[in-house]
Amino acid sequence: MKGYQSGIAEFTESDSVVFGVSTDPIATNTEFAEALELDFVLLSDEEATVATAYGVLIEGMNMANRVTFVVGRDGKIAFVESGGAAIDPAGAAGACSKLN
After folding, report:
1. Residue 71 belongs to what H/E stretch?
2. Which has the closest alpha carbon to 95: 73, 83, 80?
3. How far apart are CA 92 and CA 17, in angstroms?
4. Can you name the residues that pair with 68 across neighbouring β-strands?
5. By the number of CB atoms within 10 A of the CB, which of 41, 44, 61, 85 ranks highest?
6. What are phi and psi of 81, to 5 degrees?
7. Contacts of 34 by beta carbon, 8 Å cutoff, 6+ apart
8. Could you give the angle at the alpha carbon of 1 between the alpha carbons of 68 and 56, nearest 5°?
9. What is the pLDDT along the chain (100 residues), one digit of tens a residue?
10. Burial class (CB within 10 angstroms; exposed 0-12, middle 13-18, buried 19+) of 63
11. Distance (Å, whole) CA 54 – CA 17
12. Where are the alpha helices (DSSP H) in the chain?
């Protein structure tokens, strides 16, 4: 999240919107966002509906794998990055700049 916060200008320049989704409760996400001074929203997916729909839920843990998705204006997934690479916003920022 810190990487996305520090590179937020790259996303706003490409007219993109950044938000995070976590299976953590709202209160936990709020504390996390405040501690990191994030300028983007963290959404709570406590029931793992989104994580399940995107195929990133870790079975039996109610927790999602670390994955970055770039979704185009048409609603289609244009870019996916998972694991350690998902922490670095460079790939997502590049994908966003190509969409606009």
Report:
1. strand 67-71
2. 80
3. 11
4. 81
5. 44
6. -140, 135
7. none
8. 35
9. 788 888 888 888 888 889 999 999 999 999 999 999 998 999 999 999 999 999 999 989 989 999 999 999 899 999 999 998 888 999 999 999 998 6
10. middle
11. 18
12. 2-6, 8-13, 26-36, 49-53, 90-99
For the question of whether the overall pTM of this predicted structure is more than 0.85, the answer is no
AA letter at 45: D
Cα 74 to chain centroid distance, Å, stands at 18
Distance CA 41, CA 89 (A): 16
What's the CA gap between 33 and 10, in Å, rounded? 19
The torsion angles phi and psi of 16, rounded to 5 degrees, stand at -105, 160
Quote the tokens at residue 36: 């990191």
The pLDDT assigned to 52 comes to: 96
User: From residue 68, how far is each of 14, 27, 72 by CA, in Å?
Assistant: 17, 22, 13
